[in-house]
Specification:
The complex is a heterodimer.
Chain A lengths: L1 H25 L1 H11 L3 H9 L3 H22 L7 H17 L1 H22 L6 H15 L4 H4 L4 H8 L29 H5 L3 H15 L2 H17 L15 H19 L4 H32 L11 H13 L5 E5 L4 H11 L2 E3 L20 E5 L1 H6 L2 H14 L4 E6 L2 E5 L4
Parallel strand pairs in A: 1-2, 1-3
Antiparallel strand pairs in A: 3-5, 4-5
Helix pairs in contact in A: 1-2, 1-3, 1-4, 2-13, 4-5, 4-6, 5-6, 5-7, 6-12, 11-12, 11-13, 13-14, 15-16
Chain B lengths: L10 H42 L6 H27 L2 H31 L1
Helix pairs in contact in B: 1-2, 1-3, 2-3
The chains are: A mainly alpha, B mainly alpha.
Chain lengths: 427, 119
């Protein structure tokens, strides 16, 4: 259970990350309301249900990275520069890179846009060569020992970069997000704004953006930079990037905007303080009701039915086999997994076993020749347990045929509860 | 007291929240819950808090930065050490002692430097 609990903590970290950024920029009330709303962020909950996605951990760092960098920039306008915030930014960016490079791309893009805005708008050069060199040195020190994992010759990251996206978009610039053709997340409504966030948020988000544009102080410029970065990232397919990534970060900016706009405008409207207080309290109550009864209710019913049957969650048989892999296989093992019915369960087995795994996404019953497994596989995880539960006789026969053709010369290490683990290349 | 005047930096409040988290984990998930939360506090937060405590940061910043830094750096150090000594458990202990030592070492060095400059 400790592994599941730990992953649940990681998946919930955005609440904390969002709190620190928005509490420090806009006060405790906005910080509290923003992070409270993010508790019900459908996409974040889905990522937990989907299994293990390192992008999520990487994106969670975004508000903390931005906070840290903002504090560094802000110190240029005070009596004393505070390079410690830039050094912390360097460490946090490096950690983001460890988790997944996507988070770094998003954070750095916001940082660049925000820096340019600050330089042009406030006519102050926010750059110190000494700080910048230490910043680079920290990144080199933190990433150095593990450089070959993400950027070595055999790394998946380098291969992905070399292959490119293959996902060109012809939709143009006049959309916010759209559902990609392939591979996509495969969850109905995942790419839909209204399904994930609720259409009721649109006017409040627009009001939030309007407030940022009207106010345009440094902290608002940070959020405008974030908004522009989101737009660029959502449309990267037009210029050759992969379609519809970074979409998870939408809620991290938009949910706070729901509160920033309405409360910000009430704050600047000329009326007696008492009325302002009533208006603020009224809107906070209204928004909380909407969040709890629309988003909260939807999330509750989603979670309630998430583990409806044994096929939708990892079984004891799969858990035990994953633990066996974790304990008995060497650290550099590359395991090919096949037969497990759902993508999220493969991800969970991957995470629980602490070993690198590969699989063919479609179809479920793999047709790949194990010799062509990429990167080169050393072991195979053949899972009949789901198929047996589902009574899928035809698929069981197909998998048996695949096993006979591919694993004839492999040695059997584990054979329990309809799951087999093989070591390849040994007779 | 209005929310704007509510000081979340207050150590007491954060310590109270920490105790609530521990109690909640214990009641809901038993000893496993307690172990996970205690492990997170002890291994990810504490060593980096001791290091960041030497810099001009607010209490809440120290807590949050420690946590987010610890989450990435502590397992990386353990991973690297475990490759060398072939034991994850021992690597955890060494990494913990090493980081706590660095934190306390910086504090000692700064205090010594300060007292030297005063005298």
């Amino acid at each position: 259970m400790s592994a599941f609990l730990f992953y649940a903590i990681i998946c919930s970290l955005i609440v904390l990350a969002s709190y620190i950024l928005f509490r420090n920029l806009f006060g405790v009330l906005i910080g509290f309301l923003s992070s409270f709303f993010i508790i019900f962020s459908t996409r974040d909950i889905l990522w937990y249900l989907f299994g293990q996605y390192p992008q999520v951990a990487s994106f969670v760092y975004m508000p903390v990275v931005l906070y840290s960098y903002y504090k560094y920039v802000d110190s240029f306008f005070s009596e004393k520069k505070k390079p410690i915030y830039l050094y912390i930014t360097a460490i946090l960016l490096s950690i983001q890179f460890f988790f997944h490079p996507q988070g770094v791309v998003a954070s750095v893009l916001v940082i660049i846009i925000f820096s340019l805005f600050t330089i042009f708008k406030e006519r102050k050069f926010i750059f110190d060569i000494k700080h910048f060199l230490v910043f680079l040195l920290i990144i080199a020190i933190v990433l150095g020992p593990f450089f070959s994992i993400p950027l070595g010759k055999e790394s998946k990251f380098r291969k992905d970069l070399a292959i490119g996206s293959g996902e060109k978009s012809d939709a143009g610039f006049f959309y916010w997000t759209k559902t990609p053709k392939e591979p996509g997340v495969g969850y109905p409504g995942y790419y839909s704004y209204s399904a994930m966030n609720g259409i009721w948020t649109v006017p409040f988000v627009l009001l939030g953006i309007a407030f940022l544009l009207v106010s345009r102080k440094r902290k608002e410029m940070l959020l405008i930079s974030w908004l522009i970065a989101l737009y660029i990232l959502f449309h990267e397919a037009i210029i050759g990037g992969r379609a519809e990534r970074f979409i998870e970060t939408e809620a991290y900016l938009f949910y706070p905007l729901v509160f920033i706009g309405i409360l910000g405008f009430i704050g600047v409207i000329k009326m007696p303080d008492l009325y302002k207080r009533y208006a603020k309290a009224g809107f906070v109550a209204l928004l909380l009701i909407l969040v709890i009864f629309l988003n909260g209710k939807a999330v509750y019913s989603q979670l309630k039915g998430a583990y409806g049957n044994d096929l939708s969650r990892i079984t004891s048989a799969q858990f035990n086999a994953a633990e066996f892999i974790g304990e008995k296989l060497p650290d550099d093992a590359q395991v090919y997994i096949t037969g497990t019915l759902s993508f999220n369960k493969k991800k969970w087995i991957w995470a629980l076993s602490h070993k690198s795994m590969a699989w063919q996404v479609v179809p479920v019953i793999n047709t790949i020749d194990i010799k062509n497994c990429e990167p080169k596989c050393t072991h195979a995880f053949v899972d009949y347990s789901d198929l047996a539960l589902a009574g899928a006789g035809k698929e069981i026969n197909e998998l048996q045929e695949w096993e006979k053709n591919n694993l004839a010369d492999a040695s059997l290490l584990y054979d329990k509860d309809n799951i087999r683990v093989y070591e390849l290349g040994k007779i | 007291m209005s929310l704007e005047k509510f000081k979340i930096e207050d150590k007491g409040i954060l310590i109270g929240v920490g105790i609530l988290i521990i109690l909640f984990s214990l009641l809901l998930f038993g000893i496993t819950g307690l172990r996970v939360v205690a492990g997170v506090f002890l291994l990810f937060l504490l060593p980096f808090y001791l290091i960041l405590d030497n810099f001009e940061l607010s209490f809440i910043e120290k807590i949050l930065f420690s946590f987010f830094i610890g989450l990435g750096i502590f397992p990386s150090i353990v991973y690297g050490l475990a490759l060398a000594i072939n034991s994850i458990r021992l690597a955890i202990v060494i990494a913990f002692v090493l980081l706590v030592g660095i934190g306390l070492g910086i504090k000692y060095y700064k205090r010594k430097k300060k007292s030297n400059s005063v005298s």
